Amino acid sequence: MPTYIDWDGVIHSIVPYAVMLLQLLVATLCGGIIGYQREVVERPAGFRTHVLVCVGSAIYMLVSVAVAGTAWDPGRIAAQVASGIGFLGAGTIIKQGSIVRGLTTAASLWAVAAIGMAAGYNMQTMAIALLGTAVVYFGLTVLRPIEVRIARGIPFTMNLTLVAPRQRLSWIRQVLTTHKLAAHDLIFNDEKGEEEGDIIVNGNAPSQEDLDKAVETLTLDHHVRAVSWHAKD
Predict the structure, then answer these.
(1) Domain containing residue 195
(2) N or C end: fewer C-beta atoms under 10 angstroms in the chain?
(3) Residue by residue, what is the 3-state secondary structure of 117-161?
């Protein structure tokens, strides 16, 4: 007797796995978009971290739905992601003197976890995941210049290595004032000895141009061994 393949049954059995694959791909895309933005600005958690968090959250949600079925609450397992992601986010937060860095990156990890859960629940909530990604990306990019304007300056941390740092303190303050940079605090590190040490300056610059000019002035002095700086998120 000829063997007939029940193509309707085959397709019907394949569709759920195809949908799950699509959900994971959407989670990868969403996490990658936000992670790419964090990678470009050189934050502690970048492209791969955000992708893994988003895909992992989607997998937790898929497992929750599969285990719960129609009799149990599918949010019981997935709900632990919301609290568990806090431990990962805490690892990106760094306290340096009176300045705390990494809060925005921690928040972006928390956001991609929520996006991953939306992508992993069902086809309808995937739209929430895509819209959420657009809003988060907008907040990380477009709102940054507005935030800087509201703060009336670019927050920065500058690291100086120079000869006799305590004796050059007044000169450093003069350079910063000349270029309209406001220093909130200066942290000394004399572990290298009395002849050479480090100074960490936390402050605000009115513009990127003023900050660059101040750094250029500092590097031209023969007492300065090294200068590095970074804007804070």
Answers:
(1) 152-231
(2) N
(3) HHHHHCHHHHHHHHHHHHHHHHHHHCHHHHHHHHHCCEEEEEEEE
